[in-house]
Each structure stands twice: as structure tokens, then as C-alpha cells.
Specification:
Blueprint: E1 2-5, E2 9-15, E3 21-27, H1 31-39, E4 46-50, H2 54-61, E5 66-69, H3 72-86, E6 93-99, E7 103-109, E8 112-119, H4 123-134, H5 139-146, H6 158-162
Parallel strand pairs: 1-4, 4-5
Antiparallel strand pairs: 1-2, 2-3, 6-7, 7-8
Keywords: ATP-binding, Coenzyme A biosynthesis, Kinase, Nucleotide-binding, Transferase
GO biological process, one term: coenzyme A biosynthetic process
GO cellular component, one term: cytosol
């Protein structure tokens, strides 16, 4: 089982009874639900865990499971390389943007990588704005609402700023 205990959501990847890759997600602040779900799974020998809330969850699980803590970006990179291989892409040099509660940007080249930068803007920003503007604080309730509006009514574009003059961007 692999767990990404993020700032907002805890995502779990595992092999189901048919040995197919399956996923579950929980709100990270609802650790009792996460633990209950894990306790109801049979045959868990080891849990690989990463993410900003990994230490908290690890402390709660260490008496029941063998825990292996992983560097979050390295775990993400292993997953990206797995998907690239499965999709038959032969790419060694690329920019990887990982959007979670915040956003991290890495330049990957061959077997190395460097962190190019990042921002606190990510899913956490969306959820914070949603709570402030609509009083909705559940991800599942926010996402369907995004399809109802039109960003053309809200977004300022480069064209709006330049007022019809050809912009340099």
C-alpha cells in the first residue's frame, strides 16, 4: 500500500482482491476514517508513506504495520516514470509540476532532478477561496460547481490589459 498524506487529502494506492491497482482518498484531518479503512483491509504487510502529514499518520500506524517513509518528490517521480513506461513514452528530460495543497516544479534530467521552484498556490488555495466565497469546504462539492460557471466572465486576460493592442506575450 502506498499513502500520500497531503495537507488536504490523503490518497491511498493499493492492489485490490483482483490484483488491480485501486485508489481511495480521505480528508487528511479525518485520520480515524483512514485508520478504520486500513484495519478493514487484509494482508497488509507494509505501508509506504509520504507527504506533509506522513509523520502524524506514521505515528498512529507504526504499532500495527511496518512503515517505510519515502521522500515525496522521489515517490512522485517513480510514479511518473512508471506511467511513462506503461504508456510507452521514452522521455528522460522533462519539467514535472506536482500540484497538491501547494505546487512544486522540478526539472528532471536522466536520473537526476533539481527543484526549480514552487508556490503555495494549489488545491489548498482553491479550497480556501471556496470556503470564504461560498462556505463550501468539501472537495467533492466544489468540483461540480466549477463546470457551471464561465471563466470568461471573471478572468482578466492579457488582451483586456492591452486593450486590443497586440501584446508581447
Amino acid at each position: 500500500i502506498g499513502i500520500d498524506a497531503g495537507g488536504t487529502l490523503t490518497k491511498i494506492a493499493y492492489l485490490n482482491e483482483q490484483k488491480q491497482l485501486a485508489f481511495e482518498k480521505f480528508y487528511s484531518n479525518d485520520q480515524n476514517k483512514i485508520i478504520d479503512w486500513l484495519m478493514n483491509q487484509t494482508g497488509i504487510k507494509q505501508i509506504c508513506i509520504t507527504g506533509g502529514k506522513a509523520k502524524q499518520l506514521q505515528q498512529l500506524l507504526s504499532d500495527s504495520y511496518k512503515i517505510v517513509e519515502l521522500n515525496e518528490f522521489e515517490a512522485t517521480l517513480v510514479g511518473v516514470r512508471y506511467i511513462l513506461k506503461e504508456e510507452k513514452y521514452d522521455i528522460n528530460n522533462f519539467i514535472l509540476t506536482n500540484i497538491g495543497t501547494g505546487t512544486s516544479i522540478h526539472y528532471v534530467y536522466n536520473d537526476k532532478y533539481i527543484r526549480a521552484g514552487g508556490t503555495g498556490v494549489g488545491g489548498g488555495t482553491i479550497m480556501g477561496l471556496s470556503k470564504l466565497l461560498t462556505n463550501i469546504d468539501h472537495f467533492e462539492d466544489v468540483i461540480p460547481l466549477t463546470k457551471l460557471g464561465s471563466r470568461k466572465e471573471l478572468d482578466i486576460t492579457v488582451g483586456d490589459i492591452y486593450g486590443g493592442i497586440l501584446s508581447p506575450i
